[in-house]
Design goal:
With about 475 residues, this protein is α/β, with parallel strands linked by helices. Helix content is about 45%, strand content about 20%. The chain has 3 domains: about 150 residues, no CATH class; about 180 residues, Rossmann fold (3-Layer(aba) Sandwich), CATH 3.40.50; about 80 residues, no CATH class. Strand 12, helix 8 and strand 13 form a beta-alpha-beta unit. Bound molecules: adenosine-5'-triphosphate and magnesium ion. The site of adenosine-5'-triphosphate (ATP) has 15 residues, from helix 7 and helix 17.
């Protein structure tokens, strides 16, 4: 009896599905949709399984969810599916597998078993999407699971699939460095070799920065819990050649983030700046190098206070709120525009982003940029100390120790030399560490001598010498 009911039901459903395909071919779209809806409702009533469909097209672009599901499943399908498609996406380092049409694979989440299927349907001229008339196929993934797991699938499994898929995508693609040309970002593959291993820093400072970055990258829940956008600001400051740009590259390599190198002088006004921000992706470092040079802070201050007598002009201007200084017309990038970019409501339109500003002159920055909470971490990169020198010696000369090290250590305590200049000496004679170290010692001795002969109140200018006496730079 039971068998009979099922077989009758089966033939009714088969008939309905057949009718639907006929309706699709010959009747208006509205009627097809209505019929499909009713059919789905009927199927839902008799089946204890639920199907979720994830379509490729989401209006005018490929759906992000579809892409994440595709990547997630491609990692699983290489072992589970019977027929696969092999491809190498444009932005990817590796070959990837994807399911072929009508292939199915199963997946397990905790103790729940689900089934995925991939479908590709040829579209007739009539049924092509108006958004994408060039596409002659409709592609979608179908997820099937038991009704009783509905809540867990929607609240935990699907978010897990999407996050995992996006992470896999990020890991397999080539990282990029973007720069802005007027209103748009253009990119090239980012393949900078700097890492925290090659960066010459005192061990404690390096450890602190690494821990900070690691904590940030794992703190999504924490940021949500405390009601803050998941972003962090770093201000790297110090003399030229101390490793600010190298550190940004090392950060990107450590976190596996893209870099957006924002050239503020190319941005017309605050509105363009906001558009550029909105166009950046998550998991990225947004960099403004030499912030003191990119933003004409002094000019803004002059604008605010029209006329002063000569005595007043000598005095340093009072720090003031950036909003007060904004020019009336939206004609250029202002400090408040930059602060809104990093801090304002728009800054939370993405997540997992670092904002890194660099400067050689922290004293020239507007206090509004420096106030606590704005740039979360201020990092001073300075002259090479012995700990940092040992990293350079290891990298450039492949040595851990040398009889000349004690003399170098003494000299470095008395003389300031940037890591860039130390590296120059170490590169001079490849394959002969002793003569490279001797060349460095000579330069350090020269600097020490200059300090001894320099007038007491005179300082050796940064521009004229690469190594200066401690405390006089
Ligand atoms: N701390 C460092 N560790 C390793 N290499 C360094 C370090 N600092 C500088 N260098 C070397 O010196 C070169 C210049 O360094 P970098 O461009 O990072 O300096 P910077 O602080 O950004 O200078 P600027 O202020 O002029 O932009 C790099 O190519 C790098 O090889
Ligand atoms: Mg630099």
């Amino acid at each position: 009896m039971k068998m009979e009911v099922w077989s009758n039901l089966g033939s009714i459903l088969a008939t309905l599905i057949f009718i639907r395909s006929v309706v699709r071919e010959y009747f208006p779209r509205e009627l097809c949709d209505l019929f499909s809806k009713s059919l789905r409702r009927l199927l839902g009533m008799v089946s204890s399984y639920i199907s979720v469909v994830i379509e490729e097209n989401d209006g005018m672009k490929v759906s992000e969810v579809y892409e994440a599901v595709q990547t997630y499943l491609s990692a699983r399908s290489s072992s589970a599916a019977e027929r696969l498609k092999l491809k190498k996406p444009k932005n990817s380092r590796d070959f990837t597998f994807s399911m072929d049409s009508n292939q199915r694979i199963s997946d397990k989440f905790e103790d729940i078993k689900v089934r995925w299927a991939f479908h590709s349907i040829e579209l007739s001229q009539k049924t092509r999407s108006p958004w994408n008339p060039g596409s002659d196929e409709k592609r979608y993934y179908e997820l099937k699971f038991h009704k009783k797991h509905k809540h867990k699938i929607f609240s935990e499994y699907l978010p897990h699939v999407i996050t995992e898929g996006k992470n896999l995508e990020l890991r397999s693609r080539n990282r990029k460095i973007y720069t802005n040309e007027y209103r748009y970002w253009t990119s090239v593959v980012f393949d900078h070799p700097a890492t925290f291993g090659t960066l010459a820093l005192e061990t404690e400072q390096k450890q602190e920065i690494l821990e900070d970055l690691e904590r940030f990258s794992k703190a999504e829940k924490y940021y949500r819990q405390v009601g803050r956008a998941w972003k962090r600001g770093y201000l790297l400051y110090g003399p030229p050649g101390t490793g600010k740009s190298s550190m940004i590259a090392a950060m990107a390599n450590f976190l596996d983030y893209d870099i957006y190198d924002l050239e503020l002088t190319q941005v017309k006004n605050n509105t363009e700046l906001r558009k550029l921000l909105v166009a950046t992706t998550n998991k990225s470092i947004i960099v403004i190098e030499d912030i003191d040079c990119s933003l004409d802070l002094s000019d803004r201050k002059k604008k605010k206070k029209p006329e002063k007598d000569s005595e007043e002009k000598e005095k340093p201007s009072e720090p003031s709120k950036p909003e007060e200084n904004e020019p009336k017309e939206d004609s250029k990038v202002t400090l408040s525009g930059v602060l809104n970019f990093t801090d304002g409501l728009w800054s939370c339109c993405g997540s997992e982003r670092l904002f890194v500003f660099t400067t050689n002159h922290i004293d020239r920055l507007d206090p509004a940029l420096l106030r606590s909470g704005r740039m979360d971490k201020h990092i001073l990169l300075t002259f090479c100390k012995f700990g940092a020198f040992k990293t350079l010696a290891r990298n450039y000369l492949s040595i851990e120790d040398h009889e000349l090290f004690p003399e170098i250590q003494d000299l470095m305590e008395a003389v300031e030399m940037t890591p860039a200049d130390v590296a120059e000496h170490l590169m001079k004679t490849s394959g002969n560490p002793t003569s490279a170290l001797q060349s460095l010692i000579e330069a350090l001795r020269d600097a020490k001598e200059r300090r001894a002969t320099a007038p007491l109140n005179g300082s050796i200018s940064e521009e004229n010498t690469s190594a200066t006496a401690q405390g006089e730079a």
